[in-house]
Design goal:
Keywords: Membrane, Transmembrane, Transmembrane helix. This is Rod shape-determining protein MreD. It comes from Christiangramia fulva. The chain is mostly helical. It has a single domain, classed as Arp2/3 complex 21 kDa subunit ARPC3. Helix content is 70%, strand content 0%. Helix 1 runs parallel beside helix 3, helix 3 packs across helix 4 and helix 4 packs antiparallel against helix 6. The longest helix has 25 residues. The radius of gyration is 15 Å and the shape is globular. 29% of the residues are buried.
Length: 168
């Protein structure tokens, strides 16, 4: 087994347990909750098999759903995020993505921020829309999406900084 496969398996398992055991117990002001498990979707190798990636994203969300008993909303949100990821990569990184030479750790901060922020916002919007499943709650959906996204984006960037290979 190569190191990329092992690091992806480790990241998958660690993020699920971190989300379920610690992060799901954080709830600021009743509607701010970090969802760091999207880091797996953000960091999955850009040149990896897309079909396998969609399956793993679904499995990631389903694992969270099983622990949370949330009826598949995390699986759906992860699947949407994984499906739109190539478009977000092309939007954020442009020609670098087309030539498959992106390294998230070396990317300009603007491109990295747009990629992470758009991915997290879309994931969270789908998640909270399915959770509420009513347009009468659109203000609450948008509020939860915005504030949970800000918290998640901060955690993602902290994680990227703490665990990047540059600082090892």
């Amino acid at each position: 087994m190569n190191s990329t496969l092992l690091s992806n398996i480790g990241r998958f398992v660690i993020l699920i347990f971190l989300q379920v055991l610690i992060l799901n117990n954080i709830n600021f002001a009743g509607y701010i909750n970090p969802y760091l498990y999207v880091l797996f979707i953000l960091l999955y190798p850009f040149t990896g098999n897309q079909s396998l990636f969609l399956f793993l994203a679904f499995l990631l969300g389903l694992s969270i759903d099983i622990f949370e008993d949330s009826g598949g909303i995390n699986a759906a949100a992860c699947l949407v995020a994984a499906f739109i990821r190539p478009y977000l990569l092309r939007f954020s990184f442009g020609i670098s993505y087309d030539h498959q030479n992106i390294r998230l750790s070396n990317a300009p901060i603007g491109a990295k921020l747009s990629y992470v922020a758009l991915m997290v916002l879309i994931h969270h919007f789908v998640l909270f829309s399915l959770e509420m499943f009513s347009l009468t709650h659109i203000i609450l959906i948008l509020k939860k999406t915005l504030f949970s996204s800000i918290f998640t984006i901060i955690l993602v960037f902290l994680s990227l900084t703490l665990f990047s290979k540059k600082y090892r």
